[in-house]
Amino acid sequence: MRAGFFITGTDTGVGKTHTTCALLGAAAQLGYSTMGMKPVAAGFERQGDAWHNDDVEALVAASSVKADRRLINPYALRSAIAPHIAAEQQGVALRIPPVRAAFDALAEQADVVLVEGAGGFVVPLDATHDMADMAVALGLPVILVVGMRLGCLNHALLTAEAIRHRGLSLAGWVANDLGTDMAAFEANLTALGQRLGGPALATLPWHPGEPPEAASRHVALPRWHSLLRKVS
Ligand SMILES: Nc1ncnc2c1ncn2[C@@H]1O[C@H](COP(=O)(O)OP(=O)(O)O)[C@@H](O)[C@H]1O
Ligand SMILES: [Mg+2]
Q: Model-level pTM greater than 0.85?
């Protein structure tokens, strides 16, 4: 691996997967081999003989390197609810060391590995650990996906504060349009840019139904390239 990032978001459903796929596609355009990882996925449906999760399938489709699903998604939780509750219901302990081991194995197989968190940055894993602890254990710089809607400035700034509080760097951020016709969209972008620090890697438009990898054309390629080179 030459570059790895942990992808977090201002909330659940704000476009972390959409953005991760876009960044994977853009990295491939820059000539890197790519891999998306979803350590903890909650919400699986039975499709024929297999269990299906939208995030895992989207990341697999957007990755240029094919790998064992058990490495891509070490923890598959059936219910689409908070991970620590889904895990408890299933009698599973969400442990960080196996995630670290899976990540290390994936890192040997691709130039760029993007790890999508679950929910927001400090979503619990159990009574004492949270998603931020996982990001710390992986030692990855963080990319923040801001779901552009009223309230996102507070969520984005709180998340940036939490990232730095855990000793991680906010490597960059992405504004994802959620199709809410947000008033003063541009002014909100400016406010984020002035306060978040780190490069704005993309503003992804709301394009319902479009495959997420198509969104890679909206990534600011020179900025993404220089970030990839910086951490290499
Ligand atoms: N910019 C966008 N254009 C079109 N659809 C989007 C966009 N951002 C998110 N979506 C859709 O909204 C839903 C939630 O996005 P997703 O990336 O899964 O969020 P998260 O990973 O943060 O939970 C998905 O169905 C996704 O395809
Ligand atoms: Mg997701």
A: yes
